[in-house]
Design brief:
Lysozyme, two-stranded antiparallel sheet, mainly alpha, 2 domains, 221 residues
Length: 221
């Protein structure tokens, strides 16, 4: 019938009332399929150039966010990769009751940036972006820029320091001040992984920066 390229197979039969209803139904199904393709994660999330080749509007969104909040694109990408692997409706897995009954989730974290309910409400109240949704890429990216900017202002963390920014992102500003992450070796390793990924994204973007800028009409660094 259709794939993510939007190709539609042939429709046989005369265009009588039944045929028209069939066409309308098939078009509706195609639109739903294409909508699903639009929010699907990029096929290669390990390469920044591949991500933006597939999701060209994301480059402009993240450029604009860099201009607004001063957070480098490669840092934004690394945080989203760690939090959701670019899955728009990501949630923590459900726990198990008696090892087999699906139970509650570990937290209310949701969306590209895995933001908790309370933190998202805080963001909306402070920015006035009341219509923001956590499963909207632009809104999630804006949240990351806003939060990283606060971490820079309150905690003095460089916006280019992906490792420390991720620790503050995960533990909250109070937790970071208390250095709660020092008791979590696994988290410190995750933060180092975010730093490595951020550096790799930055190197990759250096090779496709000019091409991406020609497509978006903007600037990057």
């Amino acid at each position: 019938m259709s794939d993510c390229s939007g190709r539609i197979g042939p429709i046989s039969g005369a265009m009588n009332g039944s045929g028209r209803r069939l066409v309308v139904w098939m078009l509706g199904m195609v639109m739903l399929l294409l909508a699903g393709c639009a929010v699907a994660p990029p096929r290669n999330i390990e390469n920044a150039c591949s991500i933006f080749d597939e999701k060209s509007d994301w480059y402009k969104i993240m450029q604009d966010n860099h201009k607004k909040w001063g957070v480098p694109v490669h840092v934004q990408l690394a945080i989203i990769h760690q939090e959701s692997k670019f899955t728009h409706d990501a949630r923590p897995p459900r726990g198990k009751l008696f090892w087999f009954i699906p139970w509650s989730r570990a937290s209310s974290a949701y969306g590209y940036a895995q933001v908790l309910d309370g933190t998202w409400n805080w963001y909306k109240s402070k920015t006035g972006n009341w219509r923001a949704d956590r499963d909207n890429y632009k809104d999630a990216v804006d949240f990351i820029g806003w939060y990283v900017n606060i971490s820079h202002r309150v905690l003095g963390i460089s916006k280019w320091d992906a490792e420390s920014q991720y620790l503050a992102y995960h533990e909250g500003h109070g937790g970071y001040k208390r250095k709660s992450y020092r008791k979590k070796k696994w988290l410190m390793e995750v933060a180092r992984k975010v730093k490595r990924l951020s550096g790799r994204y930055r190197s990759q973007l250096a090779h496709c920066k000019d091409r991406l800028e020609r497509g978006s009409g903007g600037w990057f660094f």
